[in-house]
Amino acid sequence: xxxxxxxxxxxxxxxxxxxxxxxxxxxxxxxxETLIVVRFLVGLxxxxxxxxxxxxxxxxxxxxxxGKRACIFHTASALGPMFSxxxxxxxxxxxxxxxxxxxxxxxxxxxxxxxxxxxxxxxxIMPDLPSNTKPSIFYTQEQIDIGRRRMAEIGRKPxxxxxxxxxxxxxxxWHIYTLVPLYVLFNNGGGxxxxxxxxxxxxxxxxxxxxxxxxxILFRLKSFNKPRHTVYxxxxxxxxxxxxxxxxxxxxxxxAWWSDIVRARWPPMLLAGTWAMTTNIVLASTxxxxxxxxxxxxxxxxxxxxxxxxxxxxxxNELTGHDNEKRAFVVASCNxxxxxxxxxxxxxxxxxxxxxxxxxxxxxxxCINFSMMCFAMLTLYLSKRDQRRERKLRASxxxxxxxxxxxxxxxxxxxxxxxxxxxxxxxxxxxVSEVPVPTLTSEFRCAAxxx
Length: 451
Hints:
Layout: H1 8-26, H2 32-46, H3 49-57, H4 63-74, H5 76-95, H6 103-125, H7 141-153, H8 164-172, H9 175-187, H10 196-201, H11 213-222, H12 234-239, H13 243-262, H14 266-285, H15 292-301, H16 309-319, H17 324-342, H18 345-349, H19 359-396, H20 404-425
């Protein structure tokens, strides 16, 4: 919510600078208590980044453009681990023991060093909202006016004052009650990938679990190494498991272009949900150590729903665009509750004593993906219902009897007129039809995920 009052070009880069400094401090932690405190502050600083960027993206783009932009940004969560594999290899081979620091500590230092200049650059090049972006060498006044007009055309409102009625409206409409569960279910629909580490490392003994799908492959490769018999080097272990992120990147981009082409968010959700649900059913119903190649492939498929994040948040931006503050609240709530649930759910349904079989976890995850599809259909139904009601209201209501919805629609037309007047006023100086729409500059913090 702060980003609706503090300029994104200040808030987001500032949080990234803080994140960078704290991440480098992690390398100097001498005890577990210090590590926990600093890690908490790191999480606090980074928690604002993803929802804030998605909110800003949703402030500039129309529905037939938004899915691609949101998902392209989301691919950073997959591209980061891919590049970090090479980064880990270089740090371990070249920096392990330098100045008394272990290779893994140098990774924290490198993360911070990489992020600081990008964060500082954000102060200069990152746009704010169309309503408060100032002209600069990157964004002309004509481009800003076009951005305002474009958002007015689709009824996406600029920031407004907080009122008791507005805040109450966050909870008296259906959006938060379908979009937040939809995002929570998506975000917790890939837990079966965590079983891969147990499947390869210790078939009959429990071991500490990792949530990172890449780490699952790392331990699988390590299991081939025996005393005085090394099969895979550290460098190979860090670079081989990149196919997991490749699958996520490809599916994310396919979902994005498909969704924008058909101008609907729900079809990719049904495909990804069905795919993930089938994958978990196969994992639950087939033997562990027969058809090894098949099981390997299906473990890779457990993350195919990972590309839905950008689409769900794009949908949230579109459905709540008539109220800027509500839009920010819903987008932030989706991200917050998703990770609140993820903090405890895997421990409950994937206990390490049941690994790698985890029949209960695989079945539950299949149900989670089915439920995700149900909430996608519920969101679709309610949005279509609202559209039907709006059409009936337009056809039957005269201005003197207009409701809040009718007034909001009238205000949208006024926004368009105001934007058009500003654009026409500058037409004599610049042909605005030739001015490109400003493109958001997104920070792709490639190495952040390894922290």
